[in-house]
Amino acid sequence: MFEIALQTHESCDDLLTEARPGLASNRIHQGDCRTFLKHIKDKAIDLVVTDPPYFLDGLDNGWRKGGKEAPRATGTVGGLPVGMKFDPAQGKALQQFMSGIAGELIRCMKPGAFALVFSQPRLSHRMAIALEDQGFEIRDLCVWHYTKRTQFKAFSQNHFIERMDLPDWKKRQIIAEMEGLKTPQLRGQHESIILAQKPRQGTFVENWQRWKTGLMNADASLDGSRPSNVMQVEKADLAERGVAAEHLTPKPLRLLSHLIELFSSEGQTVLDPFLGSGSTAVAAQSLKRDWIGIEINPTYVALAEKRLADAMI
């Protein structure tokens, strides 16, 4: 049975004066993961699967858009809206934000344990650097490939040309010359998944004997073939999205289940510090894994609660 832990930042800070008690498993902890992660015991987590915010819609480090007085925004952010200014500073902000979180993750993970971290493709290098700088080994860059429900966000420059201080004939000439040319935004059909690993203790065999981590289940398969770093799974359809439809980007359960089967065993503990609408918890629960979920947005906590309850019926 799962529960929801509602704790204020103040109550969490009070706990820091005690020995780390560890967060209860099979439980949603509502609040900022930067606070809650501090309470997970050292070397307690067997697998991390998570989808952090991408900082693509002007969110600051407190998940706010529009300044400190703005309400908390989404846990996961979609792609750039058409016409939004490209800002390389977003990647640097993501790297800085994830660096502190990665430090807590590697502390609470068992030696050899894996962290699977979703990333928008153009920011995947920043995500990987944040993990690597905290001591993770970057084992691979996996690709979640999908073909349906994707948008082509590139747009022409005609509306800018129309506003130029030029004669109409010159505008028409420039527009004709630039026919078919659009902004460099290819139709997105994949997301990156950073496959990071906490360094092992000793050999693969020695680490496995002590921690039961560090190796993958080569029999886990999406299509009957050996596991690949390109995972073809369509986005969650309307039937699966259901109550999760209020979340911008719920990950398909088939994909999360595959990742959990690949890199963990029954009875182990899966952590998602950005739980969103609860997909990681639902997948882990169905595969007989314990799980710990942290989510800052109360709306998403309610969605996750309902999804978990429905999955147990």
Automatic annotation (TrEMBL):
It comes from the Bacteria. SUPFAM superfamilies: S-adenosyl-L-methionine-dependent methyltransferases (SSF53335). Keywords: Methyltransferase, Transferase. It catalyses: a 2'-deoxyadenosine in DNA + S-adenosyl-L-methionine = an N(6)-methyl-2'-deoxyadenosine in DNA + S-adenosyl-L-homocysteine + H(+). The keyword Transmembrane does not apply. Residues 45-306 form the DNA methylase N-4/N-6 domain. InterPro entries: DNA_methylase_N4/N6, DNA_methylase_N6_adenine_CS, RM_Methyltransferase, SAM-dependent_MTases_sf. The keyword Methyltransferase applies. Belongs to the N(4)/N(6)-methyltransferase family. This is Methyltransferase. It comes from Alteraurantiacibacter palmitatis.
